[in-house]
Write a structure and sequence with these properties.
The protein has about 180 residues and is α/β, with parallel strands linked by helices. It is built from five helices and six strands. The protein has helices at about 35-50, 75-80, 95-105, 125-130, 150-160, and strands spanning about 10-15, 25-30, 55-60, 85, 115-120, 180. The model is unreliable at about 165-180 (pLDDT under 50).
Amino acid sequence: MDDGFSAPACCLWLTIEPDSGRIFVIDELYKAKQTQEMLAEEIHKRDLLYAGRMITGICDTSAFANVGLGQSRAAVMDQLGGGWRPATKGPGSRVQGIQSIYRLLRGSARDGGPALMFFSRCERLIEILPTLPRSRYDPEDIDSNAEDHCSDALAYGLQYVGGSTFREVSISFGDHPGLHKAI
């Protein structure tokens, strides 16, 4: 999740098709002016819809910052059943995340089909992703002043696809046994 209050928060639900390795982004939550309680409630509803329970998620590290108002946004959402883990960030991680998105968009899954697909419910992500402007300072990066909440949320989720930190859950969603959440 790319957290935000004045700026929109974006939460994405991803699933991996085991045989092909294809990643599906099946849903998005994209809203501004949401308290952590409001955001947690909406996320909880969708988790129950897809998995029948809360799903552990990946969250922007800014949500874990204690800004002097008591607990962080992530801590409050965790108390409401969220189970958030911070995204891995470091020098060059934003560029690596963007490159992962582009690589998957150009690449193919093990069966020769697309490596990354989006369900129509991901309206904002589908609208924004193809139009992200490049940074004029770093051609490998996107413009940090652009509306990058969806692409950041997607990059946070994709950084875990190949590793053991993405947890498989059983869902009744066609032939897609693993569901993951990135916020």
